[in-house]
């Protein structure tokens, strides 16, 4: 299992629609679990499925007219939102 935590920062005062569209694209990906909170979005699934979901959702955003920054952390464990990871 793999988990990814990501944040999207569109460089525009009207940032909410861009973030909402991105999250909708992620939720359309059938093989990953998607959870959101006020700070980030978390994906959990196989490595291939998480990376495919990220690619599918990020591409339209990256190719759009607004400059955006993505911050992504990828873990080699499946993490449920709110769950502590033992190290």
Overview of the structural elements:
It is built from two helices and four strands. The protein is an alpha+beta fold and 87 residues long. It has a single domain (2-75), classed as 2-Layer Sandwich (Alpha-Beta Plaits), CATH 3.30.70. The chain has a four-stranded antiparallel sheet with strand order 2-3-1-4, covered by helices on one side. The two termini are 16 Å apart.
DSSP summary, beta strand count: 4
- What's the alpha carbon Rg, rounded to whole Å? 13 Å
The residue-averaged pLDDT reads: 89
Helix content: 25-40%
| CATH overall fold name | Alpha-Beta Plaits
Distance between the termini: 16 Å
Topology order in helix (H) and strand (E) letters: EHEEHE
Figure out the total of helices.
2
**What structural class is derived from the secondary structure elements?**
alpha+beta
Shape: globular
The poorly predicted ranges are: none
Name the beta content range.
Answer: 25-35%
| Number of spatially distinct domains | 1
- Can you tell me the CATH class? Alpha Beta
Please give the order of strands in the largest beta sheet: 2-3-1-4
In the CATH classification, which architecture applies? Answer: 2-Layer Sandwich
Taking the sheet with the most strands, its summary is: 4 strands, antiparallel
């Amino acid at each position: 299992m793999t988990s990814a935590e990501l944040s999207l920062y569109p460089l525009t005062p009207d940032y909410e629609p861009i973030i909402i569209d991105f999250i909708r694209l992620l939720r359309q990906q059938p093989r990953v679990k998607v959870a959101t909170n006020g700070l980030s979005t978390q994906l959990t699934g196989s490595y291939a499925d998480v990376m495919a979901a990220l690619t599918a959702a990020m591409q339209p955003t990256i190719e759009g007219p607004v400059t955006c920054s993505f911050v992504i952390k990828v873990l080699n464990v499946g993490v449920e939102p709110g769950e502590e990871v033992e190290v």
